[in-house]
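Subject: complex prediction, re-run

Hi both,

The earlier run crashed halfway through, so I resubmitted it with identical inputs.
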Amino acid sequence: MAALRLHFRIQPVIMKIDSVDFFYLSMPAILDIGDGSQDALLVRIGAGGKQGWGECEASPLTSIASYVCPMSHSACKPLKQSVEGMPINGVDDIHRISLAVHENSSDLLQADHTLSGIDIALWDLLGKHLQEPVYKLLGYKKAYPKLPYASQLFGRTPEETFEKARSTRSSGFRAVKFGWGGFGIKSPKEDAAQVLAAREGAGEESLLMIDAGTVWNEDLNSARERLGTLYKSKVYWLEEPFVNGAIRAYNELSATRPAIPLAGGEGCHSFVQAQAMIQYGGLRFIQIDAGRIGGITVAKKVALLAEKNGITYVNHTFTSHLALSASLQPFAGIEKDGLCEYPVESKKLAKDIALVEIARDAQGYVNVPENPGLGIEVNTNALKKYLVDVEISVKGERIYYTPEF
Amino acid sequence: MAALRLHFRIQPVIMKIDSVDFFYLSMPAILDIGDGSQDALLVRIGAGGKQGWGECEASPLTSIASYVCPMSHSACKPLKQSVEGMPINGVDDIHRISLAVHENSSDLLQADHTLSGIDIALWDLLGKHLQEPVYKLLGYKKAYPKLPYASQLFGRTPEETFEKARSTRSSGFRAVKFGWGGFGIKSPKEDAAQVLAAREGAGEESLLMIDAGTVWNEDLNSARERLGTLYKSKVYWLEEPFVNGAIRAYNELSATRPAIPLAGGEGCHSFVQAQAMIQYGGLRFIQIDAGRIGGITVAKKVALLAEKNGITYVNHTFTSHLALSASLQPFAGIEKDGLCEYPVESKKLAKDIALVEIARDAQGYVNVPENPGLGIEVNTNALKKYLVDVEISVKGERIYYTPEF
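This time it finished cleanly. Structure:
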């Protein structure tokens, strides 16, 4: 019997990834607006009888194709080759898979977006397996509450923006962000009216952020023309004046007076891109979407780099509360990074993904879930009606079809 | 009659894009080696009875998916929405389409790789329409001959590398590049033996370049350990010691002695990425793949920026002579940029794409084709046997199937 027990001890149960399923979900109609919550790509990974869930902030069909496509060469392999059948027993295994995808798919551009959902699902799975919330697996002792900012699109008129801001404040938000909806394209005067309306609606005490959504590409002058307005309205940050990666334009704007703190980085799909924005862009806030940058693994690395560089890390999240939990984990334990983006205008599909949402507490703060993994139960029953039927065949062989929940 | 003539004058013939076809081609077997010529994605665009051809350096299935996928939101649209039905009568129209894709698909990561083939096909089409080679449409008065360097993989042993280098020299090449095949992973001593063998085979007079293929990720020390060897072997440049975009690592290595000129940039899929490499990376050579960065339009912009910054522009091309012609156009008229990467180890598929290859002249130089467009006739008859049958269906509707040549 002793020998038998020893046998069990030296041969621990090895969990291997035995299923990876992609679910493409969509609202019945997709509108031509900047609302990224109109569709979703969920990833479900199974190992050892447990399941983890992740979400890609990405074009669903394109990401599915990157997972199943035939190999092109040694640095352009489908993601499945680096994932399926791999051991998943500890944090090192997730790092190994992340590294393998980066090596094996470095010439497959879509790979980072696809990896994001896979990586998130792996952390969720591992957390459930080890009965720990993800932030603890990441090495954080505790999770600090974050002050949520209500993230929304500008109204069509200043009056509408004023109403949106006022109603957001009445529902208890102390921070609010407006963006898109033509801001930066209209005249500086019209933009000023929108920003002023947002400030009036939000009240003097609220943090107010403005999201230019990369509208000025690399055009410093268009950005500079609006700095006076933003300064007068005490804007807490100006987000994405330029396209992601335009580090010299960011840097030069950051040195322009009146100084408005700059935020950016949501478009980063690799660590080195975020690193360049942090080291050269003159940013005060680095905004990372865990659903784009390669998942929680890469996002955490950016959070630590930001801390080292005295820059505030903020999540980018505009979709579900599954994505919200995933995006909170990487900086959960960094007390000074006290803000979080909080989706308030998501479509019903995005709301239906989590059975229970991450609600604000009595003080208006958001707390990272303490349940194992991401602490989010995916409401598969509610999602069936959004499932998009997809089939991909190559050389007569069906290499993808929509799985069942 | 005068009125009628006037009528014709004020209503010129407008060409519109009336077909866009993607052809996924593949060798019968894809080997797990760093040879990117094992498959190909060709794009054929038709307008006004004329056809243009382009090639994406990309995962074919993933790029096709990005072209036909359903819209996710206003900044994540399939590429076809920015291309099909658009007017294509002059250079401005190509710029407009490029801009539209960047705006409408900025959240679709694969978009830049897909746009590349489309943009190349549009320049080819317009050149044929206007009866001009593409470089003239780009504003260059003449095309300067480029000294080709034979681009190949290291042999499995130093002896094999020596033989490859020797045979390349005997076939008239005065510049040669070796890379991949485990370089940088093996010990510095083994790497030194490979580099030395390459130099001995190539002879003292040849330009010798070494391509590390991003093997050291961001690890400065691994790169520094090899600088002595590279210096002794008079290496003309060290290519991609680090992952694309790791600008601080590039910059720090460029400041290390002995100084080896650094080359990089083939992974750039946007103008601002190349710009950051040029402005901050300490590079001496910026290598752009027109099949990845967004086509000839974006590549030309990089060539001009490189010129302004005193950095040499070189094409990155490892596949067909269609891709080679496309990659030569952006810097055809810049005399000081006198080198070009020249594929010598392409698989038969890549060789079969162009009916006539871009041969070296009696002096060993490569001349940009003077025929209209890219000056390359695609050998569709030879390609039929490589065609990969693909079908993609969404919601029961077939949104892509392999077209006929």
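Confidence is low (pLDDT under 50) at residues 1-8 of chain A.

- K.
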